[in-house]
Automatic annotation (TrEMBL), chains A, B:
InterPro entries, per database record: Ald_DH/histidinol_DH, Ald_DH_C, Ald_DH_N, Aldehyde_DH_dom, G-glutamylP_reductase_CS, Glu-5-SA_DH, GPR_dom
Catalytic activity line of the entry: L-glutamate 5-semialdehyde + phosphate + NADP(+) = L-glutamyl 5-phosphate + NADPH + H(+)
Protein name as it appears in the record: glutamate-5-semialdehyde dehydrogenase
Keyword Acetylation assigned: no
Alphabetized SUPFAM superfamilies for the sequence: ALDH-like (SSF53720)
Disulfide bond listed as a keyword: no
Keyword terms: Amino-acid biosynthesis, NADP, Oxidoreductase, Proline biosynthesis
GO terms, biological process: L-proline biosynthetic process
Organism listed in the record: Chytriomyces confervae
EC number: 1.2.1.41
Pfam families recorded: Aldedh (PF00171)
Length: 407, 407
């Protein structure tokens, strides 16, 4: 057995114990982690500082972007937010064991659809070390084991955070510390991607190139979180002041964010109007004119990334048509594309923004880490008792007691 | 552009038109198909007969199994069921445009999560030609375009059914006949699996080898419908008569079905009892004894296929532990594994039984063909207006009007 297979086996074993851990146990583990992070704040800052110093040197020589160095930081409010996030997740409702469907198939034969953890999730992410803590907390809350691979620039920060989490988990009686594992090398990922027997889902968060590489190298289902090519379309009739304000937010408030507007589509009637003039003064990049909302929709569906697209319009009809026809995870009317975010959407926690069209799409909260299983309670029924001239299924919808199977 | 890329482009165009087709339009298309199938019954029987004759010859020479020949048939009640299935699907509630979440992010900024079609779905299936009609009907109802690849033994039946569906769709004003396309060769599949730009989901229904081949050859998300290695565990305390009856149904009522029990686990206390004696007389295959329910769970989690597993027990505690801990799509108590089926579960229609742990698991009804998009309705909001010292999100749960966006 290779090292990576041994690691995946440990993760799988941890995931099986997590499947049966009660909400109380999972929350207790989060509480232990919260406490341990606060107690080890100095150690964390020390290791993070070492990462930043090394990265700063690389940035000075041009080998790394200044932006990336900035994203490595873990001090002040960033540290506080990270630690507080664990408490927030602890306080959330238990997403596991929720009944979403209950059907009486026949007398004494009742079917339930119940949410459960996916199992072992491999998450590949870049730069920001606080993702270790965010994802570990989300995974434990949802009963999943995770294998984490962070960016090498944050290696020391990722290692100390994982080690603190592991130490905290070793105080839990029910949850194995293997529930959160860290791997460091790229070759580890290539090996892990072959282990579809142990790993149930891989979530690559990063560039389109990373997501496509992962999709092309594994049998494991992939939930991709890639770049967006988001568009904002300025319709014929609109409030010019609103359009400019929203567009500036969408384009300039965080240009490298995945939900920032890249493409500006503008109704051709605005060309050579004062409105358009003041707009282009504020926005220097290329703009495409279109004759109508249908052309805007067609452009976005052909050239966009199916992430987030917005229409600024005074016409409800055009807005509805746009929101129905644009084949993207998020379609917005009269607001900034940058609202596409799990925290802004009120999900409390975010795994990322999915560019998939299956499983979970758009901003993904805890439910992206869950699937369901069916439970069927009988008293000796056989399928051969049913059919023409025999018993019939009743398929009676039962009232759903959402908490029936929660522990 | 290759032939297959041209075909995928047509499918994608049809899918975009389907995204905006009303429920009335989609149902009208189903009605046209229903009528056309009845009107062309003779033609269908003729082509099906040709398939069966060719397959029978192959079976006589041993090149094909008799079982497969049997599955090709499309006469009598099988034809009636197939045609009636289209009407059943037409009568079902519209699954598209259903609101499942509504949140006020702030005054005048409302978020909705709305079900929508996935887009273009590639479905690979074997033998039974009625799958063409089942899947086409499910796809149209759920607003998806499909590309179908059936078994070569049913080539003539598949072709005539697709041609009748296409002719019927050509009478629809809104839905393109390209919504249902058929490809014939294996090489077509290899080409299509590269076209992740156009195809959103691939559903291989068949052997484990087929599912693994597809998973290993594409970036497109795969919803696998593979063989099951289902287990039934006979616990220490149980009703012997019930155990034998359920087991016979589970093992022998359709031995080649994916939900048939392969593995019999039996509590060691039953060895050398009269109960066990009468059991093994009825069941000739190998049996594994285990010392307790935990060992049964561990065996199933290590050696099973995560499809369907059952426990026969008089102990509710053991049953609950089994159902929670067995990591399978379906976990049953005191009934046959063969209940794992979309029709028996009351889903009305079935895409198959998924062995995935993401997107859709176990018996999959229409909802397996759906995803969702987020719609955000604003009046000029910018993300930079929110944050410390600025506006706050309210995240107020709104009452959900499920039908708000249905057309």
């Amino acid at each position: 057995m290779s090292d990576m297979e041994a690691l995946a086996t440990r993760s799988r074993a941890a995931s099986l114990s997590l499947q049966t851990a009660s909400c109380k146990d999972r929350n207790a583990a989060l509480s232990l982690i919260h406490k341990a992070l606060l107690e080890n704040a100095d150690k964390i800052q020390q290791e993070n500082k070492a990462d930043i110093e090394a990265a700063t040197k690389l940035a000075e020589s041009g080998a790394l972007s200044q932006q990336l160095v900035k994203r490595l930081g873990l001090s002040g409010s960033k540290f506080a937010d990270m630690v507080h996030g664990v408490k927030d997740i602890e306080m959330m409702d238990d997403p596991v064991g929720k009944t979403t469907l209950a059907t009486r198939l026949d007398d004494g034969l009742d079917l339930y659809k119940v949410s459960c953890p996916i199992g072992v999730v491999l998450i590949i992410f870049e730069a920001r070390p606080e993702v270790v803590v965010n994802i570990a907390a989300l995974a434990l809350k949802s009963g999943n084991a995770v294998i984490l691979k962070g960016g090498k620039e944050a290696a020391k920060s990722n290692a100390i955070l994982t080690s603190i989490i592991n130490d905290a988990l070793s105080q839990s009686k029910t949850i194995s510390k293997d529930a959160v594992l860290l791997v460091e090398s790229r070759t580890a990922i290539d090996e892990l991607l072959k282990l579809d027997r142990y790993i149930d889902l891989v979530i690559p968060r990063g560039s389109n190139a990373l997501v496509r590489h992962v999709q092309g190298s594994t049998r494991i289902p992939v939930l991709g979180h890639a770049d967006g090519i988001c568009a904002t379309y300025l319709d014929e009739k609109l409030d010019p002041e609103m359009a400019i304000r929203v567009l500036i937010d969408a384009k300039t408030s965080a240009p490298s964010a995945c939900n920032s507007t890249e493409t500006l589509l503008i109704h051709e009637s605005h060309i050579s109007t004062p409105f358009f003039g003041s707009l282009v003064k504020k926005l220097t990049e290329a703009v495409k004119t279109v004759p109508n909302v249908s052309a805007a929709i067609a452009h976005i569906n052909s050239h966009g990334s199916h992430h987030t697209d917005a229409i600024i319009s005074s016409s409800k009809e055009n807005a509805e048509s746009f929101m129905r026809s644009v084949d993207s995870a998020d379609t917005f009317w009269n607001c900034s594309t940058r609202f596409a975010d799990g925290f802004r959407f009120g999900f409390g926690a975010e795994i990322g923004v999915s560019t998939n069209k299956t499983h979970a799409r758009g901003p993904v909260g805890l439910e992206g880490m869950l699937i369901y299983k069916f439970r069927l309670y009988g008293n000796g029924q056989c399928t051969q008792d049913y059919g023409a001239g025999k018993k019939s299924y009743v398929h009676e919808k039962l009232e759903v007691d959402e908490a029936k199977f929660q522990i």
